[in-house]
Automatic annotation (TrEMBL), chain A:
<dbReference type="Pfam" id="PF07992">
    <property type="entry name" value="Pyr_redox_2"/>
</dbReference>
<keyword id="KW-0560">Oxidoreductase</keyword>
<dbReference type="GO" id="GO:0051536">
    <property type="term" value="F:iron-sulfur cluster binding"/>
</dbReference>
<dbReference type="GO" id="GO:0004355">
    <property type="term" value="F:glutamate synthase (NADPH) activity"/>
</dbReference>
<feature type="domain" description="FAD/NAD(P)-binding">
    <location>
        <begin position="152"/>
        <end position="457"/>
    </location>
</feature>
<dbReference type="InterPro" id="IPR006004">
    <property type="entry name" value="SudA-like"/>
</dbReference>
<protein>
    <submittedName>
        <fullName>Glutamate synthase (NADPH), homotetrameric</fullName>
        <ecNumber>1.4.1.13</ecNumber>
    </submittedName>
</protein>
<dbReference type="InterPro" id="IPR009051">
    <property type="entry name" value="Helical_ferredxn"/>
</dbReference>
<dbReference type="InterPro" id="IPR028261">
    <property type="entry name" value="DPD_II"/>
</dbReference>
From TrEMBL, chain B:
<keyword id="KW-0479">Metal-binding</keyword>
<dbReference type="Pfam" id="PF10418">
    <property type="entry name" value="DHODB_Fe-S_bind"/>
</dbReference>
<dbReference type="GO" id="GO:0016491">
    <property type="term" value="F:oxidoreductase activity"/>
</dbReference>
<dbReference type="InterPro" id="IPR019480">
    <property type="entry name" value="Dihydroorotate_DH_Fe-S-bd"/>
</dbReference>
<dbReference type="GO" id="GO:0046872">
    <property type="term" value="F:metal ion binding"/>
</dbReference>
<dbReference type="InterPro" id="IPR012165">
    <property type="entry name" value="Cyt_c3_hydrogenase_gsu"/>
</dbReference>
<dbReference type="InterPro" id="IPR050353">
    <property type="entry name" value="PyrK_electron_transfer"/>
</dbReference>
<feature type="domain" description="FAD-binding FR-type">
    <location>
        <begin position="1"/>
        <end position="96"/>
    </location>
</feature>
<dbReference type="InterPro" id="IPR039261">
    <property type="entry name" value="FNR_nucleotide-bd"/>
</dbReference>
């Protein structure tokens, strides 16, 4: 109550609407892989920043998993101090250019912004992206000061957001850091999963180059568990951080998943992003250019796949999802963008089997309609099959995006790690410590598939704990 | 960068052997494991089995057949040139076990894959029969190395230009008939050959290992492209294999999936050949 009455009186000046993000028009962008939002101009950013009423007890900040000092960085932007803004962001978040683009802001920072009660919330994500992009394109090219070398050696396994955060933090504290990455390019999901049109690879490369300039060693093509085991790393390094993600694709387990044209989203997106199959035959890796594509699932990964399909020349790109629109777990912006671009949503539908030709090519999927019952353990209403409601959809490509789980390659070769029943590594959420001495873990391999900012946050937690251990021995 | 230090053309240039500097992989590699190679920045990730290693010199040996764009591109790499990426060792190592008598059957470039396994089985004290075959005498590879890796080597050619005139399955059957105490068969080669061998060994109730070669991308269990059906279950060949119990493998499905990209592969190879013709005249 008291807080309500104390809220600043709205001054009698003209209300500034939330600044629209300029975007490539839908009918243009569905044919290219360039980034969809074009970014705020400095004027737009300052105008948007001026909407923030600088709450004393900022709700937005509680919505951010790493507690970015949102009013402070926005104040800097409002005053045109863009360098100050990025410094504020960096205090809590090593990857603002990425998070500004991919955080589910509507359920995090922006979801709690007080302006959102009556009006639209402050565009925190867009401002974060602006500050990071401005710094990358115009910022002074100075590296932050590094502590004196400690002589301690840290191995980081996996170069996704958690690993990059750990590496960035610990290199500044004077430790010697090496990142081991299984693929031939660093960045984790940011490089192999999230498409160019949503997160340009040049940004990920620039983040990695920055770490390299700070002195982080990158060893790509290093599959820990095969090339070298964690125990072997522990002989050469004082500590090991495991940020290997949740890279194991799940399949539907319905008949016909072997047909040519059925992909996991990991394969579909890895081919098109990491291997640049969208530029075949200039790049050698092929990806079938489906005319009628169905993506199964309703998360960000599904939206990315369905929108990639359009850019690969699909005439029809469907999202087939068991639950309803309300339950779609993807970011709102992604659903909106997908719809604008012409992705068709078949909600409350689940696949029963795939059909194909004798020589193995996918021709269709049989689906069954669903209705929503009582909420299940996850709190979402459970889909129930409607008997006899089967229908056929003619497709030549299917992308299965129903989630991913822990890849056992590393954990199986590492004795002494405790795993939960899904195969995720057990780690203390307050420190990132695992049950194995001198080994920390964080990100999707601990939590199961989650978000970039949660992985980055877990990296920050672990790096603090690792620094304490290397400095004080606990 | 991974430099080629020795290079040989075999089987009239249809097959190429490379010794590549990859010290970290060389000390780790075990029989049955493979690497993934990429020639350059625009290249595909191509899986090849290690036919041999030299840990002291830090070298690995791959032997590949030129079948399309990427292997043709590999063939242009000479001694002193480098692969951009070599990743490994990947896949589960062969479970080498002393069973007494074993028979190892290889066809085409499958012989390269079979070689370290054969040698491993011999080294731990098995009596090893080896059967290798090719279409014709000129196309047979690694005869000497296979002879050294086994106790008895039998050779077959489809056209009868060398050794037995006929398929490796003929000699496999013969060996199994004459040696009722054979405890294990390892059969590696083209899919139809492995399938035919498994049909033979089933009749003798001899456990049979095959090495599967589905299309792969990452080779770490992340993409699911390499899924194969074994005993009715979905397996990822890059991490669960590449070796499996041949009597459980669904070869039809493997064969289908290997054909996923035929039109794209042809386009890619044709473009490469026409671009390459002008520069080297071949
Ligand atoms: C297509 C897609 C879209 C997404 N969209 C969003 C989004 O919009 N917003 C959002 O917040 N989140 C999104 N996510 C989720 C987010 O990307 C992940 O939660 C996050 O990347 C997890 O980070 P991580 O550090 O745990 O590992 P990852 O990013 O998964 O990286 C792990 C790295 O470890 C490497 N690795 C694995 N095993 C080994 C090994 N044995 N040895 C060496 N290296 C190894 C992998 O190759 C990989 O590079 C998306 C995910 C996908 C797949
Ligand atoms: C574990 C494993 C080990 C292998 N070891 C050897 C070896 O030691 N020697 C050897 O000559 N060959 C080996 N192969 C096969 C080799 O990888 C293919 O011949 C090669 O990828 C063909 O590529 P290309 O571009 O030259 O030909 P393409 O014309 O692109 O392909 C020819 C055929 O090869 C298969 N193929 C295509 N791309 C791939 C891919 N990315 N992964 C696997 N297969 C593919 C397809 O069936 C295709 O029709 C192995 C394959 C696997 C999976
Ligand atoms: S990191 Fe994500 S949640 Fe936090 S302020 Fe930035 S966009 Fe919002
Ligand atoms: S809640 Fe909204 S208005 Fe308040 S400080 Fe945060 S962004 Fe600004
Ligand atoms: S090649 Fe990707 S999972 Fe095996
Ligand atoms: Mg190819």
């Amino acid at each position: 109550m008291a807080e309500e009455t104390k809220a600043p009186e709205a001054p009698k000046k003209e209300k500034i609407p939330r600044q629209q993000m300029p975007e490539q028009p839908a009918d243009v962008r569905r044919h290219n892989f360039d980034e969809v939002p074009l970014g705020y101009t400095p004027e737009q950013a300052m105008k948007e920043a001026s909407r923030c009423i600088q709450c004393k007890d900022p709700r937005c900040r509680q919505g951010c998993p790493v507690e970015v000092d949102i009013p402070a960085f926005i104040k800097c932007i409002k005053e045109g101090d863009f360098e100050g803004a990025i410094r504020k962001l960096w205090e809590k978040n090593a990857l603002p250019a990425v998070c500004g683009r991919v955080c589910p802001q509507e359920v995090q920072c922006e979801g709690l912004c007080v302006l959102g009660k009556k009006d639209q919330p402050v565009a925190i994500g867009n401002l974060e992206k602006f500050a990071a992009d401005y710094q990358r394109n115009h910022g002074r090219d100075v590296l932050p000061p590094k502590a004196a070398p400690t002589g301690k050696k840290v191995a980081v396994v996996g170069s996704g957001p958690s690993g990059l955060t750990v590496a960035g933090d610990l290199i500044l504290k004077g430790h010697d850091v090496t990142i081991f990455e299984a693929l031939h390019a660093p960045g984790g999901v940011l490089i192999y999963g999230i498409p160019e049109f949503r997160l340009p690879k040049a940004i990920v490369a620039s983040e990695c180059r920055y770490l390299e300039r700070l002195g982080v060693n990158f060893e790509v093509n290093a599959v820990i568990g095969r090339s070298e085991t964690v125990d072997e790393l522990l002989e050469r390094f004082d500590v090991v951080f495991l940020g290997v993600g949740a890279g194991l694709p799940m399949f539907l387990k319905v008949p016909g998943e072997h047909y040519i044209g059925v992909y996991s989203s990991n394969e579909y997106l890895t081919r098109s992003n990491l291997m640049k199959a969208y530029d075949f035959p200039n790049y050698d890796t092929p990806l079938v250019r489906g005319k009628r594509v169905a993506t199964f699932g309703g998360g960000n990964v599904a939206m990315d796949s369905a929108r990639t399909a359009l850019r690969m020349g699909a005439e029809k790109s469907y999202i087939i999802y068991r639950r309803g629109r309300e339950e779609l777990p993807a970011r709102k912006e992604e659903i909106h963008h997908a719809e604008q671009e012409g992705v068709e949503f078949m909600l409350l539908s689940a696949p029963v089997r795939f059909t194909g030709t004798d020589d193995g090519f996918l021709t269709g999927v049989e689906c069954r309609r669903m209705e929503l019952g009582e909420p299940d353990a996850s709190g979402r209403r459970r889909p129930i099959e409607i008997k006899g409601s089967e229908f056929m959809v003619e497709i030549d490509t299917a992308v299965i995006s129903i989630g991913s789980s822990a890849n056992p390659l590393l954990t199986k070769s590492t004795p002494g790690l405790a795993l939960n029943k899904w195969g995720n590594i057990v780690a203390d959420p307050k420190t990132g410590k695992t049950m194995k001495p001198r080994v920390w873990a964080g990100g999707d391999i601990v939590t199961g598939a989650a978000t970039v900012i949660l992985a980055a946050g877990a990296g920050r937690v672990a790096s603090n704990s690792i620094h304490d251990f290397l400095t004080f021995g606990w | 960068m991974f430099e080629i230090v020795e290079r040989q053309e075999l089987a009239q240039g249809t097959i190429v052997s490379n010794w590549i500097k990859a010290p970290k992989i060389a000390v780790k590699a075990k029989p049955g494991q493979f690497v993934i190679l990429r020639a350059n920045e625009t290249g595909e990730r191509i899986p090849l089995t290690m036919a041999d290693t030299d840990p002291e010199k830090g070298l690995i040996n791959v032997i590949y057949m030129v079948v399309g764009k990427s292997t043709a591109l590999f063939k242009t790499l000479q001694v002193g040139d480098s692969y951009r990426d070599v990743i490994g060792p990947l896949g589960a190592a062969t479970h080498l076990e002393k069973v007494g008598k074993v028979v190892c059957v290889g066809g085409g470039t499958g012989i390269a894959v079979l070689h370290p396994i054969t040698r491993g089985l011999k080294n731990i004290g098995n009596h090893v029969f080896a059967v290798i075959g090719s279409r014709s005498k000129d196309l047979l590879i690694m005869e000497d190395r296979m002879r050294a890796a086994s106790h008895e080597l039998l050779i077959c050619t489809d056209d009868g230009t060398y050794g037995h005139h006929g398929f490796v399955t003929d000699k496999l059957k013969e060996v199994l008939e004459n040696n009722k105490d054979i405890g294990l068969a390892v059969c590696i080669g083209p899919v139809p050959m492995m399938r035919a061998c498994c049909n033979v060994t089933k009749g003798f109730n001899v456990k049979t290992l095959v090495s599967l070669n589905p299309i792969m991308v990452d080779g770490t269990g992340m993409c699911g492209c390499c899924r194969v059906r074994v005993g009715g279950e979905m397996k990822f060949a890059c991490v669960d294999g590449p070796e499996f119990d041949g009597h459980q493998v669904d070869f039809d499905e493997l064969n289908l999936r290997l054909r996923s990209y035929l039109p794209e592969e042809k386009l890619s190879y044709d473009m490469f050949k026409s671009a390459h013709k002008c520069s080297c005249g071949s």
